[in-house]
Specification:
The chain has helices at about 1-20, 30-35, 45-100, 105-135, 145-150, 215-220, 235-240, 265-280, 285-290, 315-320, 325-340, 360-370, 385-395, 455-465, 475-480; strands at about 155-160, 160-170, 175-180, 185-195, 200-205, 245, 250, 255-260, 295-300, 310, 375-380, 440-445, 485, 490-495, 500-505. With about 500 residues, it is α+β, with helices and mostly antiparallel strands. The chain folds into four domains: about 1-35, no CATH class; about 55-135, no CATH class; about 145-290 and about 360-400, Metalloenzyme, LuxS/M16 peptidase-like (Cytochrome Bc1 Complex, Chain A, domain 1), CATH 3.30.830.10; about 440-505, no CATH class. Strands 1, 2, 3, 4, 5, 6, 7, 8 and 11 form a nine-stranded mixed sheet that branches. A hairpin with a 4-residue loop joins β2 and β3 (about 175-180). The two termini are about 25 Å apart. Bound molecules: zinc ion (ZN) (2 copies). One zinc ion (ZN) binds near residues 216, 220, 315 and 318.
Length: about 500
């Protein structure tokens, strides 16, 4: 991007320099430059860099200022709220005074009682004010991770969850609490850490049964109207209403993930509500399926009987885009060819040619089989209290109480081959791509199944050391071989579920 900018700048500069006589000098202090009105906007490279850093600094300052203002306005608002609560006892006292006037019999006792009542009320409102201030400003005290571990001992129960493990991770200064939902078996991992950026994520194991893209379509589909939020594009709509720091949804080869993060407690609750309502109580309307998945649409909507029909749909279009990237196709087809018998032999995102095989009913039944808490994992991170999250989850998990838990879905191990196989994949030429329309060669090894997360993680690091960067041995040796020009960006270790593979390749 930087390079492009510079080129753009140079071009512009050259153009302007040839246009103007008086502004050939690059010295910003040259009076001739200042005199030229059109070139006062034209700056030298150094000036540009300086201006860029200045702008960045100003931006940061503006953001900080805004944050400050926001905090201030929140404080103001809580002050107004406090004033409002304070006015209540005054009003009450007016009524008490009136009664005092009307009942002249024992005025002393009423006045005493009224004052004591207002005292109690003002005390209560003070307490309310304090708590209102605390929640409104969103300021949370420093979290003590040691205390969290003591708060959630193994075996303790909270809102239908039982603590299974509770450990302190001193290296990262966090407390890790693993819980299990008693009724559904849903696992919940919470990492308590003194970090205001709080994360919440819901994960489902969505093992594809074919290449029609049911997991991917559902990922779009569930966030398009739920019982509480019957609106389209819930995430998009939240983007303008939320102060999120992250918000998205992903479909991977064997799972679907719904993560978000925010620093504000109220915002956290809102996002959690939108996500969980979509995930656990979606409407799954047929029209939305046609919108998100696929549909046939006449090219001439006014005259459908004499019109040609085209396939349309958000996921279909997205996957068409994915499949127009030549190396992307290579990576996907390699993975599928390496594990042909199991779920990794399918395209979880949906093969554009297979997506139209998926029906609305098929998608709903895939939802029923997979979007069950027993097939889900929940995750949260940050300094917000775990108990609140668990209580919130209770409302969504309650409806699964005393209901049949579907059989856990497992992935069978791919039988290992006795000899290597060769695969040739063709892709459609992309006229817009300058670099993509090239041939590429890769060698891929299926590794032994790895069930240990730590081993998986370590191998990923080892792979980075072996493959990535100019000093990596694989990179060096392949570059020096002068076979092809560049290394495939997805070279290296890929921990695909429990079926990892190692790929190394170059393009011409
Ligand atoms: Zn100029
Ligand atoms: Zn998508």
């Amino acid at each position: 991007m930087d390079r492009n900018n510079r080129q753009f700048y140079n071009r512009q500069h050259f153009h302007q320099a040839s246009e103007h006589e008086n502004c050939r000098s690059h010295n910003p202090h040259d009076p001739r430059r200042a005199a030229c009105s059109r070139c006062s906007a034209h700056v030298t490279q150094n000036e540009r860099v300086r201006r860029f850093t200045r702008e960045k600094r100003d931006q940061r300052q503006r953001a900080l200022h805004q944050q400050h203002e926001q905090a201030q306005s929140l404080r103001d608002r809580s002050a107004i709220a406090a004033r409002a609560t304070r006015s209540i006892p005054i009003l009450l006292r007016v009524t008490a005074d009136e009664s005092e006037e009307s009942s002249t019999l024992d005025s002393s006792s009423t006045s005493r009682s009224s004052s004591s009542m207002s005292d109690v009320l003002s005390k209560r409102s003070k307490r309310k004010r304090r708590s209102a201030h605390k929640s409104r400003s969103g300021i949370r005290g420093r979290l003590d991770v040691h205390k969290v571990v003591r708060q959630y001992p193994v075996g303790a129960q909270f809102h239908g969850f039982t603590v299974q493990r509770s450990e302190l991770v001193t290296e990262l200064d966090l407390a890790a609490i693993l819980l299990k939902h008693d009724d559904t078996g849903c696992k919940y991992l919470h990492l308590a850490r003194n970090d205001t950026d709080n994360v919440f994520a819901t994960l489902f194991r969505t093992i594809p049964e074919d290449s029609t893209g049911a997991p991917h379509i559902l990922e779009h589909y569930v966030l398009n109207g739920s019982e509480k939020y019957p609106i389209r594009d819930a995430l998009l709509k939240m983007m303008t209403r939320s102060v999120y720091s992250f918000m998205n949804a992903f479909t991977a080869d064997d799972f679907t993930l719904y993560p978000f993060s925010t620093t504000n407690a109220k915002d956290f609750k809102n996002l959690q509500s939108v996500y969980l309502d979509g995930i656990f109580r979606p409407l799954l309307k047929e029209l939305d399926f046609m919108q998100e998945g696929w549909r046939l649409e006449p090219l001439k909507p006014d005259d459908p009987s004499n019109s040609e029909y085209v396939l349309k749909g958000i996921v279909l279009n997205e996957m068409k885009g994915v499949y127009s990237d030549s190396f992307g196709v290579m990576r996907r087809k390699t993975k599928m060819a390496l594990y042909p018998s199991g779920p990794y032999g399918h395209e979880a995102g949906g093969d554009p040619l297979k997506i139209p095989d998926l029906s609305w009913e098929g998608t709903k039944s895939f939802y029923k089989r997979n979007y069950h808490p027993s097939n889900a994992k929940l995750f949260s991170y940050g300094d917000m209290p775990l108990k609140d999250h668990l209580e919130f989850m209770k409302h969504y998990l309650n409806k699964f109480q005393n209901k049949k838990v579907p059989a856990p879905r497992t992935i069978t191990e791919e039988p290992r081959w006795t000899e290597p196989r060769e695969l040739t994949v063709y892709y459609q030429e992309n006229p817009q791509s300058k670099e993509g329309n090239k041939a590429a060669v890769a060698v891929t090894y299926a590794l032994t199944p790895i069930k240990n997360d730590f081993e998986n993680f370590s191998l990923k690091i080892l792979s980075e050391l072996l493959v990535a960067g100019p000093n990596a041995p694989f990179y060096k040796c392949l570059q020096e071989s002068h076979l092809g020009t560049g290394m495939l960006s997805f070279s290296g270790y890929e921990g695909l579920g429990n079926e990892p593979y190692f790929l190394i390749g170059k393009f011409e």
